[in-house]
Amino acid sequence: MSEEILNPEDVGQSVKEDGVIRVLIGIPHEGMTGSEAYTNRLSMFKHLGHLEERGKLLKESPRFEFLFKTCGRMHVHVARDEMAKTALVSNCDYLFMIDDDMISELDLFERLYASQKDIVAPLAFTRNFPHKPVMYSCLSGWDSVAQCEQFTNYAVMNYPKEKLVECDAVGFGAVLIHVDCFRKMPQPWFMNPNKTGEDISFCYEAKKFGFRTWMDTRVKLGHVSHPLIVTEGYVQQQWKAYGMEVEKRYGTPEKLKTEEPILVLGE
Predict the structure, then answer these.
(1) Is the preceding omega at residue 130 within 30 degrees of 0, hence cis?
(2) If DSSP states are collapsed to H, E and C, what string results for 197-253?
(3) What's the pTM?
(4) How far apart are CA 48 and CA 44, in angstroms?
(5) Which of 89, 138, 192, 247 is the most buried (most CB within 10 A)?
């Protein structure tokens, strides 16, 4: 594991003469994958291999080249930093990360890539009840004790359905990030003093450098739990069963940037 700081001028540029789109696929916490996700990941890799070969044969298709990196049994922010460094020195265009406890359709990468965004993630939910969506609204503030900037993040409970939506932050159960984010943002990218996840903090900081974060709620991601897979359909059933609904007054993500979203118990 390298602790060196990379000089962006010393690594490859995102525009390459051969026209090949290079993507580093990274899996944090490799070695602790549940059997369901492990099988799903192998199937996805086989699918991506076919995608790569098809691009070589069909001139009208994008030409992809996939590289793989796993970082097992280390803090997730360290693993993500190592993957970002590898993406840069390997002259990649994108870093595609997917956690080892996620289940997805095999075309997850293509569907995220099609959006052509700086940072984009599929719809996913937290493992534990009440299974909040990992789309976030962030409110900036100032810590008068520590004398530094701080922010608070809230889950967008009433997320827009079946849409590509810009938001303040997303969870990185799976995410596609353009490497220009790593070229322009200071290192370490995923270590943060804010008492929140490294994924939310990264999105929050990326916005300061002009990068935009999106979630495509048309693209679904299952979260391996016990003994089930947490999907959008399951979450909706649970919310209904427990009489939970989102307040209708919080209608749009823009509204949520100024007011805290609320999950209320029905009678």
Answers:
(1) yes
(2) CHHHHHHHHHHHCCCCEEEEEEEEEEEECCCCEECHHHHHHHHHHCCEEECCCCCCH
(3) 0.84
(4) 6
(5) 138
Longest dimension (CA), the chain: 62
Q: Which of 112-121, 137-146, 189-198, 227-236 holds the top average pLDDT?
A: 112-121
Nearest to 260 by CA among 124, 163, 166, 136: 136
Ramachandran category for residue 165: left, alpha or beta (phi over 0 → left; psi -120 to 50 → alpha) = beta
| DSSP class of 195 | S
- CB neighbours of 165 closer than 8 A, spacing ≥ 6? 135, 159, 214, 215, 216, 217, 253
Q: What is the pLDDT of residues 42-78, one digit of tens each?
A: 899 999 999 998 877 766 778 999 999 888 777 888 9
Residues 176 and 109: their CA atoms lie apart, in Å, by 8
- The answer to whether the CB of 240 falls within 8 A of the CB of 219 is no
Which residue is listed with tokens 């995410």? Answer: 175
